[in-house]
Structures are given as structure tokens and as C-alpha cells.
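Worked problem 6 (solution included).
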Amino acid sequence: MQRIADLEACAQRVAELEERVDFAERMLGQQRDAEQLPRGGAGS
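Solution. The predicted structure is:
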């Protein structure tokens, strides 16, 4: 039973890490998109 509990704990940890990676990828994507936007004044 201990191995099952350990495996479930590892699966939970992997799920949490996947969420963090997804978040980091979204943040990097937004930063990259913002850097590609043209920089213009008002009315541009």
C-alpha cells in the first residue's frame, strides 16, 4: 500500500509541475507577443 501512496503522491506532483510549466509558457508567450507589437504613438 505504501508504494501506491507514493505513486499517487508522485502523480500529484507531476500534475502540479505541468500546471507551472503551462503557466510559464503562457507568460513567456505573452512577453514575446508584447515585444513584437509595433511601438507607435497615439493614433498610430
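Discussion: DSSP finds one helix and no strands in the chain.
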